[in-house]
From TrEMBL:
Residues 10-55 form the Helix-turn-helix domain. NCBIfam families: excise. This is Helix-turn-helix domain-containing protein.
Length: 65
């Protein structure tokens, strides 16, 4: 029996921002800080693996008392 491999799903910066409910600028910040791995496809396109995006820790806003 052959082993079944899964193909990773890649998202654009806009799609990643929408999925995480943040701005594209925040996604770019996470990439620059090393929090979120990203991959260049061609000269300009940047893509993010869905599994990397799901594994990115998110800060919980502090409650004000």
């Amino acid at each position: 029996m052959t082993e079944r491999r899964t193909i990773p799903v890649y998202l654009s910066l806009d799609e990643a921002a929408e999925a995480m409910s943040v701005s594209v600028k925040t996604i770019r910040r996470w990439i620059a800080s090393g929090t979120l791995p990203a991959y260049r496809c061609g000269k300009r396109a940047i893509r993010i693996k869905l599994e990397d995006l799901e594994a990115t820790p998110r800060q919980i806003p502090a409650a004000r008392c």
